[in-house]
Write a structure and sequence with these properties.
Strand order of the largest sheet: 2-3-5-4
Structural class: alpha+beta
Strand content: 5-15%
Number of helices: 12
Length: 541
């Protein structure tokens, strides 16, 4: 809990110094001018015609009805300082109760010292700790305490009234009154969370002049410290500039390194993605090749079947041609027979004509009709058979031509399909080659590193280990580490063996995986041969 602070100071003479401080006629060293507008001096209203705290003090003295003459060194006013610690007053300000605290403090002063004696009240907010200056003219009406010397002295002046107004700061600032003031002010401030100070505390108030003197001493010490610090600051500034320059260089280097790392990561990510795309493309090409191989097999079988069908059709055409030749020969035979029959007919007619000349007309007609019927039926039969052979030959020829046309169309379709597949495969291969050329152009090390990566994958290395080995630095496997030998289809112990990805002059200068300075599969082969020889020697023993 915070304490209620009450301190009373005597002001002698014209009170000019204390008035200048209170009214801010001069700027104190410990005050902040930019906060002066927060100060208040409207708690006590000056009488008409009175301007300033000094005139207000004098106005009270002139109108108090004093009968004694005011001494040259007599105390004309009391400066009552009312305050607390800075945290408590700032808390009251945050709560909006600081004005209430100031008005309550002024009200307590009026009740304690008399409302007419309180001639001024000023709230100062421009110093580190807010505080209130209440100016009291120490006029009392109680009987003055006589000194011991006055009691025995003869009276040389007339007796004055015992209860008249007097100017006496000593009667107000007795020890009993000062204790009472502390008690009553603490009671008035209790509702603001302030309590009375510790009774009998050795803490003493430092007056303004002593405070300023201590400030001047501290100021000189601080000026010396500032001069020393300025020298040190110059040295530190020089060192700071050097460090800033070094820092700038390091930051530039770090930015370059970070940029290089980012570009490397981006390039690696791009390479990994492109490798993945290439592997995917390769898988697609392999699947396409497998599909094309199966299609080629089917087409080859169909081609064989078509060739067999073609041969069969050719045999049928040959048979048809043979039948045709046979029919032609038969036709020639029929034609010759028809000619012979015609000649026989003419001879018979001639002979009949000669016989008929001598025979009866009726007999001649009968014989003539009979000969005509015989020769006519045979010719018609031969012509009908010849026409039938022609139709059969034409039908067979049309069938052979239709079969040959169908086979030619099928062969042409198959050839077109094969050409399309060939062009598609060439396009895929061409795209793969273009991608490979681009990778070789912008990432020349990737293509040459693929054989090494395939070696690592074939021996079943982890991706992290492959990525680490791609820097080309030699490393050594830990004891118990194994790699897979695809030829023997077994794991091989490679502990304490040097492993490195490096160029191989015997393989177009491509990168390959090396164990113990040798190609990995050569190392496996020699390892198994050495093992077999060891086993053979063991059997011989």
């Amino acid at each position: 809990m915070s304490y209620a602070v009450l301190h009373i100071m005597k002001a002698s003479g014209s009170c000019t110094a204390i008035a200048r401080h209170i009214e801010r006629s001069t700027q104190p060293d410990n005050a902040h001018p930019e906060l002066r507008h927060l100060n208040r001096d409207d708690f006590i209203k000056y009488p008409d015609g009175v301007d300033g705290l000094g005139e207000a003090i004098q106005h009270r003295l002139d109108h108090a009805g004093l009968t004694r003459k005011i001494g040259k060194n007599q105390v004309l006013a009391l400066n009552v300082l009312l305050s607390s610690d800075g945290d408590a007053l700032r808390r009251l300000a945050d709560e909006g109760r600081l004005d209430d605290w100031a008005e309550s403090s002024v009200r307590w002063a009026k009740e304690t010292f008399g409302e007419e004696n309180v001639v001024g009240a000023h709230l100062h907010m421009d110093e580190q700790t807010p505080h209130l200056h209440v100016t009291v003219v120490p006029i009392v009406t109680t009987e003055r305490k006589k000194k011991a010397s006055e009691s025995n002295a003869k009276k040389r002046y007339r007796t004055k009234p015992k209860d008249g107004p007097r100017l006496s700061a000593n009667d107000i600032m007795t020890r009993e009154n000062l204790v009472r003031f502390q008690d009553t002010y603490a009671e008035a401030m209790e509702r603001f969370g302030l309590e009375r100070g510790i009774r009998g505390s050795e803490a003493r108030h430092v007056d303004q002049h002593e405070y300023y003197r201590q400030c001047q001493i501290k100021k000189k010490d601080l000026e010396q410290d500032v001069a020393t610090l300025a020298t040190e600051k110059e040295q530190l500034d020089t060192e700071t500039q050097s460090l800033e320059k070094r820092k700038t260089e390091l930051e530039r280097g770090n930015r370059w390194i970070e940029k290089t790392i980012v570009e490397s990561k981006a390039a690696n990510a791009k390479i990994v993605k492109e490798n993945s795309d290439l592997e995917k493309r390769k898988s697609e090409l392999e699947e396409s090749n497998s599909s094309l191989a199966a299609t080629n097999t089917i087409l080859s079988d169909e081609k064989k079947q078509l060739e067999a069908d073609k041969k069969k059709v050719a045999d049928e055409i040959a048979d048809i041609e043979a039948d045709k030749s046979k029919l032609v020969k038969e036709r020639s035979t029929y034609v010759e027979e028809a000619e012979a029959a015609k000649k026989e007919k003419e001879t018979a007619l001639q002979e009949a004509a000669e016989a008929k000349a001598q025979r009866d007309a009726n007999r001649k007609d009968v014989l003539s009709n009979l000969a005509n019927r015989f020769t006519g039926n045979k010719t018609k039969r031969l012509e009908a058979e010849l026409a039938e052979c022609r139709e059969e030959i034409k039908t067979l020829k049309d069938r052979a031509e239709e079969t040959d046309k169908t086979h030619r169309n099928r062969v042409w379709d198959l050839q077109q399909h094969l050409d399309r597949q060939k062009k598609q495969e060439e396009s895929i291969v061409r795209g793969h080659q273009e991608t490979k050329d681009l990778i070789q152009r912008f990432f020349p090390g990737v293509i040459s590193a693929l054989p090494a990566i395939r070696d690592c994958i074939e021996v079943k290395m982890s991706d992290n280990l492959i990525t680490a080995l791609l820097d080309g630095q030699p490393r050594q496997f830990k004891s118990g580490h194994t790699l897979y030998d695809p030829n023997e289809k077994k794991d091989v112990e490679v502990g304490n063996v040097d492993v490195q990805i490096k160029r191989d002059p015997t393989d177009n200068n491509n990168f390959r995986l090396h164990l113990g300075g040798k190609r990995v599969f050569q190392w496996f082969k020699e390892k198994w041969q050495s093992l077999k020889q060891t086993v053979k020697r063991g059997f011989k023993l």
